[in-house]
Amino acid sequence: MPTTLSEKAKKVKNSSTLAITAKAKALRAEGKDVVSFGAGEPDFPTPENICEAAHRAIDAGMTRYTPASGTTELKEAISRKFREFNHLEYKPSQIVISNGGKHSLTNVFEAILNPGDEVIIPAPFWLSYPEIVRLADGVPVEVTCRKENGYKLTAEELEAAVTPRTKALILNTPNNPTGAVYSAEELKALGDMAVKHDFFVVSDEMYENLFYAEGQHVSIGSLSPEIFAHTITVSGVSKSYAMTGWRIGYTGSSQEIASLMGSIQSHQASNPCSISQAAAVEALNGPQDTVKAMNEAFKQRRQYIYSRVNAMPLLSAVEPQGAFYLFVDCSEVVGKTYQGKEIGSGADVAAILIEDYQVAVVPCTDFGFPNHLRLSYAISQEEIAKGLDRIESFLKTL
Ligand code: GLU
Fold it and tell me: pTM for this one?
């Protein structure tokens, strides 16, 4: 067997959000009572009308290849949703449907990057962004955002990071892991910068329906025709409709970029699952009351988890305005002694919590913020309460 394997592949880190969730599941299988604040995955079942649409698709024999970039029916549903919800005009031919948000992002960077092109990623960030950029031969450029600004990137911070190699900025609102949402003014300032320095905004709006702030979700591409021309909008059905396992993500972009992504996908994956596409049509076109109900539940859990964590000694968090994550600053825990050993990082805190307290949390080293933890509150209120009680018991030992 040849001994040299891909240097690029060897540099890819395994996804720790998925690894932590797998670990929590494995411990549960051993009979341990684990509370998992791990992967961001709604605990609700996929709504019944969506599952029924999938059954109907199977019965109707929709089990064959579809066009590589997705069915016309789903592209039309997405185009309408973009117009009515996001105030973005993408024709169906400008939409590419893929196997989840990660696949959409992979297509985007493969379509726009040349080796050495830089992509600005505001930190904290979702851990897959830098890996996806590197896999597409790009160079991730992390810009650390300030807690005092709710961990949001400002136009000044953005401009300071721009170089002649800047090809794109990744923007994620509502944000994973912080729950921050950007206002129209903040987005306009960032979008104007993209126009001024002529780079793309890759706008990840996967959490667009999980919004608890005043007003409503704003898509950066809706703020001016020039910003729209520089924006590639990414979303999907996973989080909004509790459809994480169905793997449907999509993009809206210029016709040219959509064609490039369609060609890439035609060789790498053919089409996304035909049954999942039929289900996604129902998700977007069918009744939206379950989205509202899930949103309401997440909103209540958010208030509970936010107030309880902030009342704990040594921990603090900024109030999330969207998504379903609480981003917890544990830097005051770092340096304390636990069972005779110094706690050296947020990763140590996460390791203690899972090993000794059966609580899975995501350490944010891979999110660009080492002494922080991410707690997903997409689990029941009872589980949240139990997990927080255990975290509190741990803190009392310090
Ligand atoms: N996006 C979710 C999360 O951040 C699911 C896991 C993953 O894809 O990383 O937890």
Answer: 0.96
SS3 181: coil
Q: Mind listing the pLDDT tens digit for each residue in 77-112?
A: 999 999 999 999 999 999 999 999 999 999 999 999
Task: Strand 325-329: give its sheet, edge to edge.
Answer: 316-317, 325-329, 372-376, 362-363
Query: By the 8 A CB rule, do 107 and 265 touch?
Result: yes
Nearest ligand 1 atom to alpha carbon 102: 8
CA distances from 364 to 125, 177, 282 (A): 9, 9, 35
Listed in order, strand segments (DSSP E) in the chain are 35-36, 95-98, 118-123, 139-144, 166-172, 200-204, 231-236, 249-252, 316-317, 325-329, 337-338, 341-342, 359-360, 362-363, 372-376
CA separation for the pair 218, 186 (Å, rounded): 10
pLDDT (mean) for 193-204: 98
Separation of 272 CA from ligand 1 center, angstroms?
Answer: 19
Helix, strand or coil, per DSSP, at residue 99: coil
**Closest ligand 1 atom to Cα of 244:** 5
- Which pLDDT tens digit goes with each residue over 347-396? 999 999 999 999 999 999 999 999 999 999 999 999 999 999 999 999 99
Q: DSSP for 290-327? A: HHHHHHHHHHHHHHHHHHHHHHSTT-EEPPP-BTTEEE
The alpha carbons of the chain give a radius of gyration, in whole angstroms, of 21
- The Cβ of residue 299 has, within 10 Å, a number of other Cβ atoms equal to 15
Is the CB–ligand 1 distance for residue 38 below 6 Å?
no
Shortest-distance atom of ligand 1 to CA 39: 10
Relative to the CA of 18, which ligand 1 atom is closest?
Answer: 6
How far apart (Å, rounded) are the C-alpha atoms in residues 47 and 57?
16
The answer to whether the CB of 103 falls within 8 A of the CB of 123 is no
Name the residue of 13, 18, 102, 246 to mutate for ligand 1: max ligand atoms within 8 A of Cβ.
18
- 8 Å CB contact between 255 and 96: no
Ligand 1 contacts CB of residue 36 (under 6 A): no
